[in-house]
Amino acid sequence: MNKILLSLCIASLLPVTARALEGQVSGFGTIGAASTDSSQAYDRGLDKNNAEWINDTKAGIQADVKINPHFSITGQVVAKQSTTDDDRMSVQGEWLFGSYALNDSTKIRAGKLRLPLFMMSEQLDVGKAYILAKLPLEMYGQAPTNGYVGADLLKRFEVGEDGELTIQPYAGMTRFDGRGINPLDSNVMFKTFEADSVRGLNVLFDYNEILRLRAGYMATKLSYKDERSSVLGGMIAGMVSNVDASFASLGAQLRLGHTTITGEYGQRRVDSMMFADTDGRYLSVDHKLGAFTPYLSYAVISSDKAKMGGMAPNLDQSTKAAGVVYAVNGNSNIKAEASQVSVGSANNSNEFFNNGTTIAGKDIAVYRLNYNLMF
Questions:
Q1: Position with higher pLDDT, 306 vs 361
Q2: Helix (H, G, I), strand (E, B) or coil at 161
Q3: Helices and strands, number each (H, E), in the chain
């Protein structure tokens, strides 16, 4: 399916002369450093032994090419932390899709797109686009991948004089590298999974730049795709073969003068003992004071303890964060944040703690400093 969609996008360009094209190139980046007060590696490589820059540093470039009044092509590549190696960066293609406008309020897109699972899904890599130094792991860490190959429909409706409703159904498929631990040597390993028959609906309501409401639901079939010949691979394949998986989420953002309140809730469900069923949520408040914007946030994640008898990890964790953003100019800012991660009964998720070691009843301080730019 992905080859067909990309071929259609490329084929549509062939009869077009260079003089007919209208293009725009934009870029973004984050230079960041982060560290903790714990020797237990957290969030893909953070520990107290050294400040980690790979975790938060990113650079991206996006090209938008208009073929005619109706059809355009968008591509985006990002250099960021590798999906399979915590200690290096890699260049990853995030977007490559064609967009066809049926009219002013209806658009069809096809190619490699971003899964619309969160309020900040399309801005995940653009640190300048949101206030927090890093989006809460308790909420955004529930999704093992953020992109898919497929198609969507964007349909906008005017609601009264100042309201706009956007309906976005979508369908496709995706592959991703799941992080795990080899039980033979306790080393980190990455296994490939495929989410087939992805189908979902994203709904947005905006009112006069004051209120944004969002609701979404995604369902798929999840399967393990590699190393089936090994004993471990065969076991995983037996437990993750065409299983039902879903993600439901709600979000809201309210702007009252210089104060903004943002909150999201997400619920992941996977019909396999290898994956935790999770509930994540967060709430943040920020207030603009001239060039400075201080903020507070609180995030929580919990998991279904009924699954703990199997191989599913247990997640019981919350994070309190306080930070400040300084606007250097309209295109760049500096963010500083201090947070406290509090593990309750246990957290042994490989997406949170690097080697899957069970952590319980422990507080970890995390410090972040980054510079964000858009151009």
A1: 361
A2: coil
A3: 3, 16
pLDDT at residue 305 tops 80: no
Q: Indicate the residue type of 59.
A: A
CATH code 2.40.160.10 for 2-374: yes
Q: How do residues 45-79 score in pLDDT, each as one tens digit?
A: 787 777 789 989 999 999 999 999 999 999 999 99
Residue 138, classified by CB atoms within 10 Å of its CB into exposed (0-12), middle (13-18) or buried (19+), is: buried
Query: In 10 A of CB 101, how many CB atoms?
Result: 16
Range 186-189, long-range pairs (CB < 8 A, 24+ positions): 186/355, 186/356, 188/86, 188/350, 188/354, 188/355
Domain map (residue ranges) of the chain: 2-374
Residue 244 tokens, joined: 């039902």
Q: Is the pLDDT of residue 109 over 80?
A: yes
The angle subtended at Cα 74 by Cα 219 and Cα 194, nearest 5°, is 30
Q: What is the C-alpha separation between 298 and 320, in angstroms, rounded?
A: 5
Task: Give every CB contact of residue 188 below 8 A, 6+ residues apart in sequence.
Answer: 86, 179, 180, 181, 182, 350, 354, 355
End-to-end CA distance of the chain: 34
For 345, the token pair is: 């009964």
State the Cα–Cα distance between residues 348 and 240, nearest whole angstrom. Answer: 20
